[in-house]
Fold this sequence. Notes:
Layout: E1 5-12, H1 28-35, E2 43-47, H2 53-59, E3 64-69, H3 72-84, E4 90-94, E5 110-114, H4 119-128, E6 134-140, H5 158-167, E7 170-183, H6 187-196, H7 200-206, H8 208-217, E8 222-235
Parallel strand pairs: 1-7, 2-3, 2-5, 3-4, 5-6
Antiparallel strand pairs: 6-8, 7-8
Amino acid sequence: MAEWNRHRIERLYRAGEKGEADHAGPGATLLRLIRDEPLHDRTILDVGCGSGRLTFALAKDAGRMIGIDRSHEAIERARQRAAALRLDRVTFHCLDAEAMNYRDLGPISLVVANLCMSNEIIRRAGAALSPGDLIVFAAFHLDQWKESGRVSRYAYGEGQVETALSEAGFKQIYLGVEREVLSLATLDEGLSYLEASGMSGKWKADGRWEGFLTYLQSGGRELTVSARVMVKARRR
Ligand SMILES: C[S@@+](CC[C@H](N)C(=O)[O-])C[C@H]1O[C@@H](n2cnc3c(N)ncnc32)[C@H](O)[C@@H]1O
């Protein structure tokens, strides 16, 4: 297995705190891994851009930015913001990233993504990029909310990342896992965190609440509120 950079932040639960459910914005590591590259002459494709948080964060540094997302509402919000900011080198398209040829968007030399990743996306990026071009992304790690007993189908383990990159023709430059783990003093603190974060309803509906309760009742006192793989790789 390749060498992975590992970071774990452990902190105590603070009464009344609200977690940010599944939709955290682009983090410092992802932005650093992208900004470490010269961007001014690149066309960057942001896959699963949503309403453009990562796209807008990079817009002033990049030659050109293209954001794609399959959600019409998200793309409409992104377009309105780009128009309000008068960004003419930023475009957004409503497209399915797992069912298109990225070359149809024109020449692209960097593919980025924040929390929208699959083997199909890595494969399509590999097919569209030229040797020396880059992919940089953050994706959910298998440990995200692992105490609920359920794993997101979008989550990656280290081995899965390495296999997907290699099969798509990439060589890794940086591989990392970043975890943030909440320490809970009592069972009630765990349930209060879910309630205050507005996650109880969703978790009750999909079985995660029951799984987390079982974990707490058996003495578990942690909650992995964030676990991400951070990847930068170069097309061979
Ligand atoms: C967790 S959100 C992240 C949004 C954005 N990257 C950000 O940092 O705010 C995941 C996004 O991926 C999009 N998405 C998921 N699968 C997709 C696909 N196959 N093609 C295009 N967009 C997709 C969703 O519509 C959603 O906007």
